[in-house]
Specification:
Elements: H1 28-42, H2 56-68
Amino acid sequence: MKAVINMGDPVAKVVGRRTSPAPLVAKTSETQSNRQWRDSGFGPRIRKGVYRYRTYEEADAWLMDRLTRKPGN
């Protein structure tokens, strides 16, 4: 039996047109607010990098220790 291919059918249908998103621009007030939040001591206190642990429990304990310590330590 031969396969029947109808060449008159459209291959795909267009449901909508994609528009490019608006560019992300930081407002001055947001930048100042973010800077104040960081300077108040609530910013991340964990240095970037690769950390290796033997168990998930050890990793969780280390993370909780870093998140709950006082700023400046």
